[in-house]
Amino acid sequence: MTVNLSAQRAPARLTSREREVLALVATGISNKGIARQLQVSPNTVKFHIAAILDKLDAATRAEAVAAALRSGELSL
Amino acid sequence: MSQISVLQEWSQARSSLSASLAPRAVSIVCGKHRAISGFHWRPDLIVTAAEALGGDEEVGVLSAAGEQRARVLACDLTTDVAVLQVPGSAEPASASVSSTPLQAGAGVVFVGRSRGGPLVSFGSVRLAGPAWSSRRGGTIDQRLEFEGQLDVRFEGALVADFAGAAQAMLVAGPRGSLLGIPSATIERIASVVEQRGYLPRPYLGLRLQHLWLDEATRTRWGRARRTVAAVAGVESGSPAERAGLAPGDLIEALDGAPVADIEALAARLAGASPGRTLALLRRRGGQTESIAIEVGEWRPAKA
Q1: Is residue B249 a contact partner of residue B283, using CB atoms and an 8 Å limit?
Q2: Nearest chain B CA: its distance from A17 CA (Å)
Q3: I want to staple B82 with a disulfide (CB 3.0 to 4.6 A). Which of B50, B112, B220, B299 is the partner?
Q4: Cβ neighbours of B72 in A, within 8 Å
C-alpha cells in the first residue's frame, strides 16, 4: 500500500491563542462572545481574526475555518 | 390598446406581488455604514446572511414597522444562515414556505429593504440542482443560482416565487454570482435555534489531514477520488477517543455514504444532531471496520 502525504503548501502556523479564537469563530458566536469567553477586549478579538485571515490567506471567516480544518489546525 | 392593458396588468401584478412580500423584509445595519437585508422567518425570528454580519452580537433592524435592536442567536458560517431574534414582534405572519422546489427558468422576486424603503428586483432561476456540500463544510439542500443584477444591499434578501412563497435567501457567490440558500436549509437551522436558543456545533474531536492515494490504491479501495481524510490527532475525552479512533486511521465513509475529503466530512457532520450515533467506516492497517461514534456537542472549554 502506498499512501503519499499531500504536498500542499504548509500554511503559516497559528498561535495557540489564534486557534482558540478560530475554534470559537467556527461555532458562530459573536466577537463580543469570544471576547467574554477569553476575557479579552472585542478589539483584541478583531485583531486576532485579522491575523488569522491573513495567515490562512482567507477572505472570510468561513474560509478561514475551512482552511484550518483542512490543515488539521482545528478539530472537527 | 390591448397591448397597453397587458403591460399595465403585468406591471400591476409585479407591484402587488412586491407589496405583499415587502412587510417581511428588513434592513440590517451591521458595522457603522453597511446595511444588508434579511426577512422574517417566524414572527420573532429573522434570517440573514451570516458572513456579512461580521461577528456582531446585536444589530439594528429596520422593518416596515420601525427600527429595533435584534440579538444574533446563531451564525452558521457553513451555510451562511444567521438567525436573529426581535423582541415581541407582532410582525408579518410567518412565511408561507413553498413545498414546490424551484426549477431552472422559473421567475423569482428578490425582496429586501434599505433605509429608503423596500428593495425589489425580478430575476429568474439560472440553475436548480441537487443538494451540495459547500466548501465551507455545510450541506445546502438545493443548488440555486439566479439571473439578475443586484447590489450589496440585497445580501440576505428573500427570494420568493411568483405565488409569493418563500423559496430561498439570496447571498453573493463567487465572481458576482447570485446564490440561493434554500428554504429547507433555513428551516433546518431555524427550527433548532427556535428550540434551543442557539445552534449547537456537532463535534467529534478529530484533527484531520488529507492523504493523496496513488492510482492503484484508489482503484483497489474503490474510491471515487484520490483524497481521503486521515486522522492526525484525537482530542482527549472526545467522542472520537471513546469510539477508539487513533492517529493514522483513515475515514472512508459515514453512515454508509463515502466521504471524499475533509470538507465532505465536515458537511455531513454539520447536518447531524449532537447525541446521534453514526456509523463510521474506518481503515486501519489494510482492514476496514465500521465503528459507532456518538456525535458530541462542541463546548468552548475544548478550545
Answers
A1: yes
A2: 9
A3: B50
A4: 30
The count of residues in chain B is 303
Q: Quick check: ipTM above 0.85?
A: no
* Cell 447536518 belongs to residue: B271
Non-local CB neighbours of B82 within 8 Å, separated by 6+ positions: A28, B38, B47, B48, B49, B50, B53, B72, B74, B75, B76
Give CA–CA dist B88/B95, Å, rounded: 17
Asked whether B146 and B178 are in contact (CB, 8 A), the reply is: yes
Q: pTM, whole model, 2 decimals?
A: 0.81
Q: Which three cell numbers stand for residue B282?
A: 474506518
Count Cβ atoms within 10 A of the Cβ of residue B122 and give its class: 0-12 exposed, 13-18 middle, 19 or more buried.
middle
CA distance B228 to B253: 10
Query: Is residue B38 less than 8 Å (CB to CB) from chain A?
Result: no
Which tens digits make up the pLDDT trace of B10-54? Answer: 999 999 999 999 999 999 998 777 899 999 999 899 999 998 888
Chain B touched by A43 (CB under 8 Å): no
Average pLDDT over residues B121-145: 89
Question: How far apart are the C-alpha atoms of B247 and B173, rounded to whole Å?
Answer: 36
- Which amino acid would we find at residue A13? R
- Please name the residues in contact with B278: beta carbons below 8 A apart, sequence gap of 6 or more: B254, B255, B272, B292, B293, B294, B295
Whole-number Å distance between alpha carbons of B43 and A39: 35
Q: Rounded distance, CA B36 to CA B185, Å? A: 20
**What is the longest distance spanned by two Cα atoms in chain A?**
51
CB half-sphere exposure, B69, CA atoms < 13 A:
4
Number of CB atoms found within 10 A of residue A33's CB: 19
Alpha helices in chain B (DSSP H): 2-21, 50-53, 183-196, 215-221, 239-242, 262-270
Locate A46 and state its grid cell. 478583531
- Cβ contacts of B223 on chain A, cutoff 8 Å: none
Per-residue pLDDT at B176 exceeds 50: yes
